[in-house]
Specification:
Low-confidence stretches: 82-93
Number of domains: 1
Distance between the termini: 24 Å
Shape: globular
Strand order of the largest sheet: 3-4-5
Largest sheet: 3 strands, antiparallel
Order of helices and strands: EEHEEEH
Length: 116
Protein backbone atom coordinates (compact mmCIF):
# COMPACT_ATOMS: atom_id res chain seq x y z
CA UNK A 1 0.00 0.00 0.00
CA UNK A 2 1.51 3.36 -0.98
CA UNK A 3 1.61 6.55 1.10
CA UNK A 4 -1.77 8.25 0.71
CA UNK A 5 -0.15 11.68 0.23
CA UNK A 6 2.78 11.13 -2.14
CA UNK A 7 2.32 7.56 -3.43
CA UNK A 8 5.72 6.32 -2.16
CA UNK A 9 5.84 2.55 -1.72
CA UNK A 10 6.88 0.95 1.53
CA UNK A 11 10.02 -1.15 1.13
CA UNK A 12 10.95 -4.31 2.99
CA UNK A 13 11.06 -3.40 6.67
CA UNK A 14 14.20 -3.53 8.77
CA UNK A 15 14.11 -4.95 12.27
CA UNK A 16 12.26 -2.86 14.81
CA UNK A 17 9.32 -0.52 14.62
CA UNK A 18 8.32 0.79 11.21
CA UNK A 19 8.77 4.53 10.63
CA UNK A 20 5.54 4.50 8.58
CA UNK A 21 2.34 5.55 10.37
CA UNK A 22 -1.16 4.19 9.87
CA UNK A 23 -4.40 6.08 9.89
CA UNK A 24 -7.92 6.09 8.54
CA UNK A 25 -9.08 8.49 5.85
CA UNK A 26 -12.59 8.37 4.39
CA UNK A 27 -13.11 5.05 6.22
CA UNK A 28 -10.09 3.43 4.55
CA UNK A 29 -6.84 2.36 6.17
CA UNK A 30 -3.94 4.48 4.85
CA UNK A 31 -0.18 4.65 5.36
CA UNK A 32 1.89 7.81 5.81
CA UNK A 33 5.56 7.70 4.79
CA UNK A 34 8.28 9.22 7.00
CA UNK A 35 8.88 12.08 4.54
CA UNK A 36 5.23 13.16 4.52
CA UNK A 37 5.14 12.89 8.31
CA UNK A 38 8.00 15.40 8.50
CA UNK A 39 6.80 17.78 5.79
CA UNK A 40 3.02 17.99 6.33
CA UNK A 41 0.41 18.19 9.08
CA UNK A 42 -0.87 14.78 8.02
CA UNK A 43 -3.02 14.22 11.13
CA UNK A 44 -5.37 17.00 9.97
CA UNK A 45 -6.19 14.90 6.89
CA UNK A 46 -7.21 11.78 8.83
CA UNK A 47 -10.63 10.80 10.16
CA UNK A 48 -11.28 11.45 13.84
CA UNK A 49 -13.05 9.36 16.45
CA UNK A 50 -16.67 10.43 16.94
CA UNK A 51 -16.35 9.89 20.69
CA UNK A 52 -12.96 11.35 21.67
CA UNK A 53 -11.60 13.13 18.57
CA UNK A 54 -8.46 10.97 18.32
CA UNK A 55 -6.92 10.21 14.93
CA UNK A 56 -5.49 6.88 16.16
CA UNK A 57 -8.03 4.78 14.26
CA UNK A 58 -7.88 1.42 12.56
CA UNK A 59 -10.21 0.10 9.88
CA UNK A 60 -10.86 -3.61 9.57
CA UNK A 61 -13.72 -5.90 8.58
CA UNK A 62 -16.06 -3.03 7.80
CA UNK A 63 -15.54 -1.28 11.13
CA UNK A 64 -13.54 1.73 12.25
CA UNK A 65 -12.17 1.42 15.78
CA UNK A 66 -10.50 4.08 17.92
CA UNK A 67 -7.31 2.72 19.47
CA UNK A 68 -7.46 5.36 22.23
CA UNK A 69 -10.99 4.96 23.61
CA UNK A 70 -12.23 1.76 21.93
CA UNK A 71 -15.24 3.41 20.23
CA UNK A 72 -16.32 1.37 17.18
CA UNK A 73 -18.53 2.35 14.27
CA UNK A 74 -19.44 0.83 10.95
CA UNK A 75 -17.35 1.99 7.99
CA UNK A 76 -19.27 3.59 5.14
CA UNK A 77 -19.00 1.61 1.90
CA UNK A 78 -17.77 3.49 -1.18
CA UNK A 79 -21.08 2.99 -3.01
CA UNK A 80 -22.88 4.71 -0.09
CA UNK A 81 -20.40 7.59 0.16
CA UNK A 82 -21.13 10.97 -1.41
CA UNK A 83 -18.73 11.81 -4.25
CA UNK A 84 -16.97 14.61 -2.34
CA UNK A 85 -15.88 12.21 0.41
CA UNK A 86 -14.17 9.61 -1.77
CA UNK A 87 -10.47 9.42 -0.86
CA UNK A 88 -8.31 11.57 -3.10
CA UNK A 89 -4.77 11.07 -1.81
CA UNK A 90 -1.67 11.97 -3.78
CA UNK A 91 -1.23 8.41 -5.03
CA UNK A 92 -3.99 8.66 -7.63
CA UNK A 93 -5.19 5.64 -9.57
CA UNK A 94 -2.35 3.12 -9.38
CA UNK A 95 -4.32 -0.10 -9.76
CA UNK A 96 -3.02 -0.87 -13.28
CA UNK A 97 0.61 -0.19 -12.30
CA UNK A 98 0.23 -2.23 -9.13
CA UNK A 99 -1.30 -5.14 -11.04
CA UNK A 100 1.64 -5.14 -13.45
CA UNK A 101 4.16 -4.98 -10.58
CA UNK A 102 2.47 -7.88 -8.79
CA UNK A 103 2.32 -9.98 -11.96
CA UNK A 104 6.02 -9.32 -12.65
CA UNK A 105 6.97 -10.20 -9.06
CA UNK A 106 4.97 -13.43 -9.20
CA UNK A 107 6.64 -14.36 -12.47
CA UNK A 108 10.07 -13.79 -10.94
CA UNK A 109 9.27 -15.75 -7.79
CA UNK A 110 7.56 -18.60 -9.62
CA UNK A 111 10.19 -18.53 -12.39
CA UNK A 112 7.67 -18.13 -15.19
CA UNK A 113 8.24 -16.46 -18.53
CA UNK A 114 7.65 -12.75 -19.10
CA UNK A 115 4.24 -11.28 -18.24
CA UNK A 116 2.13 -10.45 -21.30
Amino acid sequence: MPCFRCGARQTDPVRGASPWKRGVRADRQVLICPRCQAEHDWTAELDQCDACGSTVLTCRLGEVECRDCGHTREAVRDDERPGDLVPSGGAGPVDADLSQEVAAALSRVLKRGPVR
